[in-house]
Write a structure and sequence with these properties.
Rossmann fold, 8-stranded mixed sheet, globular
Length: 245
Amino acid sequence: MTNASTATTINAAEAAHFGALASEWWDPKGSSAMLHKLNPVRLSFIRNAVDAHFGGDGKARHPLAGKTALDVGCGAGLLCEPLARLGADVTGVDAAPENIEAAKSHAAGAGLSINYRAGEIASQGLGQYDLVTCMEVIEHVMDPAAFVHELVRHLKPDGLLLLSTPNRTPASRVFLVEAAERLGQVPRGTHDWDKFLTPEELAVLIDDAGLEVIDMKGIAFSPMSGLHLSQNMALNYILSARLRG
C-alpha cells in the first residue's frame, strides 16, 4: 500500500465540464469524437511500450495478464476497457462522478469487471500498480507537479507509466483549440492552451518525480494518414517512463 497523501489536484470547474458530457462519452460522433479517434493511436503506443517493458513478444492476446493497471482521469472508460481486454486487472479513477457512473454502466454492458472510483486519486486508498496510465488529463489539473508525484506514488518499483497530453505550440492553438472546438470535434471550453505542457516541461516534472523517460512519440495528423504516431510533436505527444534504477 502506498503512503497516505493529501494531494489535491482536481480542478472543480474542469470536473464539472467533463461530467456534464458523461452521457456522450461512448458516442464516436458526439462530444468525445476526438478521443475515439485518438484511442487506437494511443493503444498502439501502449501495446509496444507494454511489450518492451514487460518482455512481451507482440503476439500475445493478453499481454497484461496477471498485471494491475490504474487509469487516472479515466472518463467513462475509453482506455480502461481495452486495458481489461488485454488482460489487466483495471482500476479507473475520475474527478467527475457522472463519468464514473457512465463507465460502470458501459463496462457492465460489455461484461467487463473494472474497479471504478470517483474523486481525488490521493483519497482512494489505492495501492501500487504495474501500469499507470493518464491520457489527456495533466493539462486539466490544478498542480501538474503534484499530480505527477501522485501518479508515481501509485507505481510499483518495476512499473510503467504512460502519459499523453497536447503540446503548447502555435499549431496546437490553431488546430486543437480553435479549429477543433469550432468544428465540434471537442466541446467548447475543453482546452486552455496556456495549461498545455511542452515535452521539455513535462520531462522536468517526470525527472523531479524520480522517473526517466523511456520513449516519446508525437501524435500527428495528416489528410492521408489521419491521426498517427510520428516524430512530430507539434500537436500532441505520448510517452512511457519508469522509475530510475
